[in-house]
Specification:
Length: about 475
């Protein structure tokens, strides 16, 4: 009987603790987390942190199929963050999926940044510097202190389960740093922080960091395991193997050579206007160029066909505006997506929002429909305001669009880069348009070149030129030569 009473009392105690924690005000929950991490005075006394880590970075949006697990790049290294100076120094070694090893040193200091890959240094763009500053602001101890300093920005959230356990939530409203913070009911620790941003594929992208294995580092507890997710998909798994705080800093860690500093751009991280130019490839055929990704444009009578909608809605809008200016009264009738990788499908939604039917490989139809159905409250578009269902069609093995000299055929390209890849073939020009598998120009992948050559031979088509969704335009002989290497 005594044993049963003790069990009942223990269960009742846990129940009371949970109820007490859940009844606390948002500010009380944040204060409790600060106390659990070592106390507010200890957090405010932090001047710097140094952590050694192992990490797996998963390339979401670059999977073999839309539903495949993302492939990982593995890395290890050390990060030193100087809170008082707003500086960060990172040294790491990474091994990509391909086996390529990169040794990287990155420094953010004095409002500029430098990245050195395998001994070759270059200044960081303002956007990269701003992103690093955001990363520092969103470290757990910095978030807790910011919330303590702005109690009016706090509000209660409905409790939610995080990894199976019910957690108490606090919303911290602070512009682009607005966060949802989730706290453990038993020990008060910060369990998760979530920030919502706009994404061309996911719509409202929930960026969630989950913290576990808290351990002491010089009087302050820091998490030793951090998982980063994007709308439930694991982006990065990091294990902290060693951590220290308030150490003497080596100033050489944060040195940026004058030759780099002179070239660094300072100022706000405002995106540059997207410039699109039309490079003629033949009669009624152009490549919409500008930046790293290109699209194929074919005039077919009173309408236009666009192949490839890469990067972002802003990029797609720039292409559509350029076409409307160049061909007034000639609408885009159809757009074709070559494959699902997010850098090549991030601009699909703008076409769907413009009521332009999209064609994609049959493997990717549901993926593209999902892009059109995604909720977008951070950056609403036309699809967010109407109930219209976008038109998405599957490409068959014999798909052809147009007639005569403007006819474009689409063929599946078996390859090791991605499943469900389409290439465009223009018989009148004997030209192939290819994404990713090869980047036409010097240093073409021999493996990709062999895959393209095999497809062309199997289809029995005649090719004289190959244009890339990346890089340039080369002769067929160049592709054959690359395949022979």
């Amino acid at each position: 009987m005594t044993h049963r009473r003790s069990i009942r009392a223990a269960m009742l105690g846990v129940g009371l603790l949970s109820a007490s924690a859940s009844a606390q005000t948002p500010l009380a929950l944040v204060r409790r987390a600060a106390a659990a991490m070592g106390g507010e005075p200890a957090l405010r006394a932090l001047t710097n942190t140094s952590v050694e880590f192992n990490a797996a970075l998963f390339g979401i949006g670059q999977e073999e199929t839309p539903a495949s697990p993302a492939r990982a790049t593995f890395s290890f290294g050390r990060i030193v963050t100087d809170y008082r100076g707003g500086r960060r120094a990172t040294n790491q070694e990474s091994r990509a999926v391909t086996g390529v090893i990169t040794r990287q040193r990155r420094v953010i200091a004095g409002g500029i940044g430098m990245t050195e890959n395998n001994g070759v240094a270059a200044p960081d763009a303002p956007g990269a510097v701003a992103a690093a500053a955001t990363d520092i602001r969103l470290l757990p101890d910095r978030m807790i202190l910011a919330a303590l300093d702005n109690p009016r920005a706090l509000s209660a959230l409905t409790p939610r389960r995080v990894r199976g356990e019910l957690m108490d939530g606090v919303r911290y409203a602070n512009g682009p740093d607005t966060l949802s913070l989730w706290f453990d009911r038993l020990n008060g620790m910060l369990v998760a922080a979530e920030r919502v941003t706009d994404d061309g594929v996911l719509g409202d992208r929930r960026n969630t960091a989950l913290y576990t294995r808290w351990a002491d580092a010089g009087g302050v507890k820091l998490p030793r395991e951090i998982d980063s997710e994007a709308s439930g998909r694991l982006v990065q798994h990091t294990v902290i193997t060693a951590a220290s705080t308030n150490t003497a800093l080596d100033e050489a860690l944060f040195a940026i050579p004058d030759s780099i500093a002179r070239r660094a751009q300072r100022g706000p991280a405002t995106p540059a206007p997207i410039a699109v130019t039309l490079a003629e490839l033949g009669p009624n055929v152009w490549r919409a160029e500008g930046g790293s990704h290109h699209s194929l444009v074919v005039r077919q009578g009173a309408g236009l066909l666009v192949v490839e909608m890469p990067q972002s809605s802003a990029r797609s809008r720039a292409v559509l505006d350029t076409l409307a200016s160049r061909f007034p009264g000639v609408p885009v009738r159809t757009a074709v997506n070559t494959h699902h990788h997010w850098d090549h499908s991030g601009g699909v939604r703008e076409y769907l929002a413009s009521n332009i039917p999209v064609v994609t490989h049959r493997r990717n139809v549901e993926f593209v429909r999902g892009i059109g159905a995604a909720t977008k409250t951070v950056a609403p578009d036309q699809l967010s305001r109407v109930s219209r269902v976008p038109v998405v069609r599957a490409a068959t093995d014999t798909l052809a669009i147009g007639m005569g000299d403007s006819r474009v055929e689409f063929h599946e390209l078996p390859n090791t880069h991605v499943e469900g890849m389409l290439v465009a073939y223009l018989p009148s020009l004997r030209m192939l348009f290819v994404a990713d598998v090869i980047q036409p120009g010097p240093g073409m992948s021999p493996t990709g070149a062999r895959e393209v050559v095999a497809m062309v031979q199997a289809k029995g088509i005649a090719v004289e030129r190959v244009a890339g969704a990346h890089a340039g335009v080369v002769s067929w002989a160049d592709v054959v030569a690359a395949a022979a290497r």
